[in-house]
Design brief:
Length: about 55
Amino acid sequence: MFAEDNLGPIEVGKLADFVVIPVDYMTIPAEDIWKIEPDMTVIGGEIVYTKPLGVRN
């Protein structure tokens, strides 16, 4: 991709793709992981989804 200047480890000046979830998926039963709904999704350093206020899982 030749994007080494923008992508890689999370640090100042680099872009990030990540999801914020409301639970620690390592501590819930495996059969419940598919039920997790994200609170926020960030792609390329930009917020592309935020759960509406007042909505709970």
